[in-house]
Design a protein that fits this description.
alpha/beta; two-stranded parallel sheet
């Protein structure tokens, strides 16, 4: 059996991944802050172990990684998924909200890596999957706190690639479009090509099987975003403003 370690597993993509991987009889170690959600998942599955921890707490993450190792052996695949999203009005900057996004979305991944990478080095192999977003490709309306953390994750994964791949540790970055979760439920605009968390999990699992560094989905949406990514600034801002109503 493959041992998967997943963060942010109490809801959304993380919970969907845990259920699907467990259904395939893989061992799943899952980290989340909400103990009741973890307990419910554990009752419903046979190969699931939940660990209550906050990804912002490096010591708590180290303890969760160590406990998962003692229970299920070395981590074969780590899926670092925990994240938050709070829409922001750029006319009203709240530093604490921006800092919380960085602490959870970026440092939460770093805190997991700090304990997972040494374990994989000792095992002489492993697989690390970091969940970013297409919001990390270019700035988007209301994403001033969220988007930069996802851009930082892409840069982090690219930098780690040079050090980890020679050590037989596969590293991938996943960039979903809009996914129907508790986080995106607060959006007051139309979200094109919106995916369910279960469908997003299917895309991620399929992407993990491929020999690619970056996997973006759904293609119907990400192709458009990639086109916008390379537009001249003036044209990019005009098109996105027109489509989203930003600034009106």
């Amino acid at each position: 059996m493959t041992h998967y370690f997943i963060t942010g597993a109490s809801a959304g993509i993380g919970a969907a991944l845990a259920k699907k991987l467990n259904k395939d009889k893989h061992h799943v170690s899952a980290v989340a802050r909400r103990a009741d959600r973890l307990a419910a998942l554990q009752k419903a599955t046979d190969y699931f172990c939940g660990y209550q921890a906050d990804v912002r707490d490096a010591s708590a993450m180290a303890a969760a990684v160590d406990a998962s190792f003692k229970t299920n052996g070395p981590i074969d695949v780590a899926i670092l998924n925990a994240g938050i999203y709070v829409p922001q009005d750029g006319c009203q900057i709240s530093p604490s909200i921006y800092a919380e996004h960085m602490d959870v979305n970026y440092m939460g991944v770093v805190n997991g890596l700090a304990s997972i990478v040494p374990q994989m080095l000792a095992a002489r192999g492993g697989h690390i999957v970091i969940i970013s977003s297409v919001a990390g490709w270019r700035g988007l309306p209301k994403a001033a706190a969220y988007g930069p953390t996802k851009a930082a994750l892409i840069s982090l994964a690219e930098s780690l690639y040079f050090d980890l791949t020679p050590k037989n540790i596969k590293i991938q970055i996943m960039c979903p479009g809009f996914v129907d979760t508790e986080a995106t439920a607060v959006n007051d605009f139309d979200m094109p090509d919106l995916l369910s968390a279960e469908t997003a999990a299917d895309h991620i699992i399929a992407g993990m099987q491929r020999d690619v560094f970056s996997h973006a989905f759904p293609k119907s949406f990400t192709r458009k975003l990639k086109f916008l990514k390379y537009l001249p600034d003036r044209l990019y801002f005009a098109l996105v403003s027109k489509q989203t109503g930003a600034g009106s």
